[in-house]
Each structure stands twice: as C-alpha cells, then as structure tokens.
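ok so for the tutorial part 2 we go from a plain amino acid sequence to predicted structure tokens. step 1 is just haveing the sequence, like this:
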Amino acid sequence: MGLDVSHGAFNGAYSAFNRFRKIVAEAIGGSYPPHKSPLVCSDGDIIVSPDQNRFYVPGSWKTFQVEQPGISAFLLSNDCEGEFSPELCKQMADELEAILPRIEKLDDGGAGHIERDGGFLAVTKRYIEGCRLAHSENENLRYY
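step 2 — the prediction. this is what the tokens look like for a chain of 144 residues:
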C-alpha cells in the first residue's frame, strides 16, 4: 500500500513520500515532521521541536503561501487522496524546478522507494515532469 500520483509523478510508500517532503522543506530552509532536531531562533526560542507534528517555513506563513503556492500545496496536501488543478501543477513544477540545485546538494540517495527511483533529485524531477504533463494535458494531478 502506498501513494500513486497520476501522470507518472510518484509511486511509492507513504513513508517515501514523507521523506520527499522533508527534503523539499529542507531545500527551502524549512523543516517537515518528523524533525531531525529542534530549530532554534537566535534568541534561544525553539521554533520547532522534533515531536511537533507541523512543518516550519522561514518567515511569515502567509507570505510563504502567496510567494510559493505550489510548494505550499505540495507540503500541505493530503498524502493519500486529492487533486491539483493544471494551473497549480505548473506552479508546483516551476517552484520545485527552482530548488533542484539545493535538492541535489541534500540528496543522500534516499532509501527504499526513493533509492529505487534514483534518489531525491530523480524523484523530484519525475514529480516535476508529472506536473508538467498534467498541465500540458489540462488535467488535474491526482493522488490516490
């Protein structure tokens, strides 16, 4: 059992998709649960602790949603059902493509289905291709 995403964008375990989200969040300077360690502000306040079940993005959450609606949707979406419009697919693809160099630096090859599919960089490129295909065919990208 796992997640299938239409247009060949992703196929693998839910845990693999969660690791994919963790890398994307890390590439934008954020953190996705389960967190590696506490994120601490310069004044010593903990922003996110390892046991918090939410993700962190740098700066204002509202600004992030406006400036990066594609990655925002990617991180917030249900991981077992739902769909994205062709327009949102294009935004996801564009925004993910912009952070490919950072994902490449973070890519440790992954494990499980991520490793099977060539590592985080290859998985991200495949997801981008699926988003672009859905957009070009004017179809929704579906999670099932």
